[in-house]
Design brief:
Elements (H helix, E strand, L loop, with lengths): L9 H46 L4 H34 L4 E7 L5 E6 L3 E2 L6 E5 L6 H4 L4 E7 L2 E16 L2 E7 L6 H8 L16 H7 L5 E7 L5 H15 L1 H4 L3 E5 L2 H6 L3 H4 L6 E4 H9 L5 E2 L1 H9 L3 H11 L1 H17 L6 E3 L2 E4 L1 H11 L5 H40 L5 H25 L7 H5 L8 E2 L3 H11 L10 E4 L7 H11 L3 E6 L22 E6 L1 E2 L4 H7 L9 E2 L8 E6 L1 H17 L5 E5 L2 H11 L6 E2 L11 E5 L8 E9 L8 H7 L2 E10 L6
Parallel strand pairs: 2-4, 8-16, 8-17, 9-10, 9-15, 11-14, 15-16, 18-19, 20-25, 21-23, 21-24, 22-23, 24-25
Antiparallel strand pairs: 1-2, 1-6, 3-4, 5-6, 6-7, 12-13
């Protein structure tokens, strides 16, 4: 680790070191107390279990009830203790990273220390560490000293920020301390950003910038939309915002947050961030997997890497179809189809049972088109069917009473005249059977109001003989409008990552299905696989209370890498952080054998530079697979040829579209040389995956392989 000067007067440095020692000592005591508490709870459960087994030995049902209860007790008791032990163990190495001194109006100056988790002295009730998610902790992330405010439960509190101090604490030792008047000091930011990325995305609480913190702490209500360049921290912002909202709205949001990412590999990559921030119980999925489960469609769909490959290879028909189904015009056409279905699917007519009018045409039209407009169409039809069934039952009961009355009077007359009443019974039975047969026939006419088929309604919108990935969102929206789609869990906050690829119908379907009015949507319109206008830029036609943010500063890569990546952008250029590194190396139009040797040598060079993770990125799957066949003779590289693959190991080769959202310490852009002068946004995606070093190698065609 780089050593830093401790930029404090000696007397203040002594005080800070003493406070650190006090906090570390208290944390160690808390670890011991919680360890003993865990052991005590465990022993109590064991003793209780023994007693209950003896008591219920002869009653199996009670044993089952007991074990269900016991499992709950064990989970709840251990969950809180183990969670706290995990937090304390992490705090023992790095208890805090910041301090802010401030003065409220008419009060003395006070200071708070900011860390990943909060810590309170149980005897004095003094807050030793404030959780970074607490409202008052926002003072640490403010841009400058002076007058400011933070949100408290009873309203805003105005303060005067007098000092902001940052610490580098590793293994319970103070390595650096700085006073700063604005954002995170470059020394600390560079220390964190210069480290290797690792195999999973990490939290950024030490280096959250003011523009990022503003988004993270934005209010829960409404839709936050972040369009940010590569490396601006979009995914980290979304996940830290989720942790912040869970901390401050626990009762409302616990187990009610849904995060949707582009593929399962990406979801695995980000999986450790929320647990590392002390949060769990969040639902994770991809839009495709979620949609297909809700559609309950098991037929063939052209999607995933095959679909993406066809787009980047220039399949004109598929590109045109995809653009069409992302458009506002297509959404309007689908809405018109819903309207046509509602008006023409059933014939509005009078429905009778014998001479009784159960429902006239006007009432049927009113029920299906107006009274229950808030319900999906075929749900309205089910409601109408139940209404008809109830009215039919009432009419049947009236008819049955009339039959009973008629034959009761006949029975009395026959009895008075001394006639045989057995014939009366036969006649009554015949009339009742005839009535029930007519009721059954009437019920059969109601069957037309059973559920229809959303797929048949979508058939006119199919471009090909098969479905494609572009059909999934429209079909889901259509099914919801016609049938209703229900999630198996409640969603109070929805997070959408890599949302630049979403169409209007993606957003509209998710809004309708979740019923969610609180969302965080992040993406980079520069990283669209199919270039065009992303609906993410303006979602005011879909959502109320849209609050857009645009991030142009990148914190991921060196200045040299970002400058290289900017070559591939016509607008929305990246503003790089001033972190210098090695120049980007290019080897253009070399022979294939030489290219393979260069790739292997570059990997070896990266290893010598202590880069942990390396990504070899290509333009398409064909190049990926063929290069892998050649490279595996020289280096041990993992082939990523499926969006469900897991990132195991530290050297990968994959198409660039799989790498969106991922980071590597070093990247090798490996691609076939092209005579096309127009640089592709695929190159932008490739280049911006690299943190520290980037090499570009182009080679002649692979066709003979």
């Amino acid at each position: 680790m780089k050593e830093f000067n401790l930029e404090l007067p000696q007397n203040e440095l002594v005080l800070e070191e003493a406070y650190l020692a006090r906090v570390i000592g208290y944390i160690q005591e808390e670890i011991l107390r919680n360890t003993q508490k865990k052991r005590q709870v465990y022993d109590e459960i064991i003793e209780y279990r023994k007693g209950q087994l003896d008591e219920y030995r002869s009653d199996e049902d009670k044993q089952i009830d007991y074990f269900d209860h016991e499992r709950y007790v064990q989970e709840e008791s251990f969950k809180s203790v183990e969670k706290r032990l995990t937090e304390l163990t992490e705090l023992a190495g790095t208890p805090y990273f910041g301090k802010v001194l401030f003065r409220e109006k008419g009060a003395e100056e006070e200071g708070i220390y900011i860390g990943k988790y909060g810590l309170v002295d149980e005897e004095s009730y003094d807050p030793l560490i404030i959780d970074w998610r607490a409202p008052i902790a926002s003072l640490f992330y403010k841009g400058s000293l002076g007058r400011d405010k933070y949100q408290a439960p009873l309203g805003d509190v105005e303060v005067d920020i007098t000092k902001r101090r940052q610490f580098l604490i590793r293994d319970a030792e103070l390595h650096g301390v700085f006073d700063t008047e604005s954002d995170v000091r470059d020394e600390i930011l560079l220390e964190v950003l210069s480290s290797n990325v690792g195999k999973k995305l990490k939290d950024i609480i030490m280096t959250i910038q003011e523009e990022q913190d503003k988004i993270i702490r934005d209010r829960r209500e409404g839709v936050v939309v972040v369009n940010g360049v590569a490396g601006s921290g979009k995914t980290s912002i979304a996940l830290h915002r989720t942790a912040y909202l869970l901390y401050n709205h626990r009762k409302l949001l616990e187990n009610k947050v849904l995060i949707l990412g582009p593929n399962n590999m990406f979801m695995d990559y980000i999986a450790q961030v929320l647990p590392s921030l002390g949060e769990g119980g969040v639902h994770n999925n991809t839009f495709k997997d979620l949609a297909l489960s809700l559609l309950n469609y098991h037929g063939p769909i052209f999607m995933g890497e095959d679909y993406t490959e066809a787009l980047i290879s220039g399949d004109e028909e598929l590109m045109e179809d995809t653009r069409k189904k992302r458009s506002a015009a297509f959404q309007e056409a689908l809405e018109q189809q819903v309207d046509i279905t509602e008006r023409t699917y059933f014939e509005f007519r009078e429905i009778r049972f014998q001479e009784v009018v159960l429902m006239d045409a006007e009432e049927m039209e009113r029920i299906l088109l107006r009274d229950f407009k808030h319900m999906p169409f075929f749900k309205r039809a089910e409601r109408l069917k139940r209404m008809l069934a109830k009215r039919l039952k009432d009419a049947r009961d009236v008819k049955r009473l009339a039959i009973d009355k008629k034959y009761e009077e006949l029975r009395k007359k026959m009895k008075a005249s001394g006639e045989d009443t057995s014939e009366w019974r036969n006649m009554r039975r015949t009339d009742i059977r005839r009535l029930m047969a007519q009721v059954s026939l009437a019920r059969d006419t109601f069957r037309e109001f059973a559920q229809g088929d959303y797929f048949n309604a979508y058939v006119p919108f199919k471009t090909f003989d098969f479905l494609t990935e572009a059909d999934i969102a429209p079909m889901l929206y259509l099914k919801h409008r016609l049938h209703g789609v229900k999630l198996p869990f409640t969603v109070q906050h929805l997070v959408l990552d890599e949302a630049q690829e979403y169409s209007l119908l993606h957003f509209k379907a998710l809004k309708e299905i979740t019923g969610c009015t609180s969302m965080t949507i992040v993406g980079d319109v520069n990283q669209m696989i199919l270039a065009g206008e992303s609906p993410m830029k303006d979602l005011s036609s879909v959502f109320d209370q849209v609050r857009p943010y645009h991030l142009t500063r990148s914190y991921r890569s060196t200045f040299e890498i970002m400058d290289f990546a900017n070559r591939f952008l016509k607008e929305n250029k990246i503003v790089p952080l001033v972190r210098n590194g090695k120049p980007v190396t290019e080897h253009l139009e070399v022979d294939l054998d030489a290219a393979v040797d260069l790739i292997a040598q570059t990997v070896e060079n990266y290893r010598r530079d202590n880069l942990d993770t390396v990504g070899i990125l290509t333009r398409d799957m064909e190049t990926t697979r063929q290069l892998h066949r050649l490279l595996r003779k020289k280096i041990n590289v993992k082939l990523i040829d499926s969006e469900d693959a897991l990132l195991k190991g530290d050297l990968y080769i994959m198409p660039a579209y799989f790498a969106k959202g991922l980071e590597f310490d070093g990247v090798i852009m490996a691609e076939k040389a092209s005579g096309d002068a127009e640089e592709s946004l695929i190159h932008y995606i490739m280049a911006t995956r690299a943190l520290h070093e980037l090499t570009r190698i182009t080679f002649r065609d692979l066709h003979f392989y």
